[in-house]
Specification:
The protein is of the alpha+beta class and 155 residues long. It contains five helices and eight strands; from the N terminus they run βαβββααβαβαββ. The longest helix is centred in the middle third of the chain and has 18 residues, at 73-90.
């Protein structure tokens, strides 16, 4: 059994870029990589970061070409985790259902300390497996981190 997960705010991404934000198969949720973006690279602000649906709501209201990496590194990381949480929620899961994450980092040594502060707000015990990989660039200009995840699907 396979089910494609496309939260409404990411419908344009699905249709224009031809990939699913997540796919549920064989009891697992496979999440595509996500970067913390917002319209014009502005920080989504405290209100948007308090709820994943608010973060994706901003993305829904902006044309896909206007979405840019959030300029503030910690806000960019938090925005990515909020979006991941929203995608998991759409699949009926939560961050606590994560079994593995892979993060791709531009300037990994420069941003790892702030990334860890943000990650530790979202990823709690029992911790998933995690691999961090340094890369030269990401698909979204200004992107500093992309997170890809696998979670258990609800039964």
């Amino acid at each position: 059994m396979r089910k494609t997960i496309v939260p409404k705010p990411l419908k344009d991404v699905y249709e224009n870029w031809h990939f699913a934000p997540a796919v549920v198969a064989n009891g697992m949720i496979y999440c595509s990589g996500i970067i913390g973006t917002s319209p014009d690279g502005a920080s989504p602000g405290e209100e948007a970061l308090k709820g994943a649906s608010a973060t994706l709501k901003e993305a829904e209201e902006a044309p896909i070409a206007a979405l840019q990496a959030v300029r503030d590194p910690e806000a960019q990381f938090a925005t990515a985790f909020e979006a991941l949480g929203a995608i998991l929620k759409e699949a009926g899961a939560a961050m606590t259902d994560l079994v593995e994450i892979t993060t791709y980092h531009v300037d990994i040594s420069q941003h790892m300390e702030s990334f860890m502060r943000v990650k530790d707000r979202y990823i709690l015990e029992p911790y998933p497996a995690w691999t961090a990989i340094g890369v030269s660039e990401l698909i979204v200009p200004g992107g500093l981190m992309e997170i890809r995840a696998i979670a258990m699907a609800p039964v």
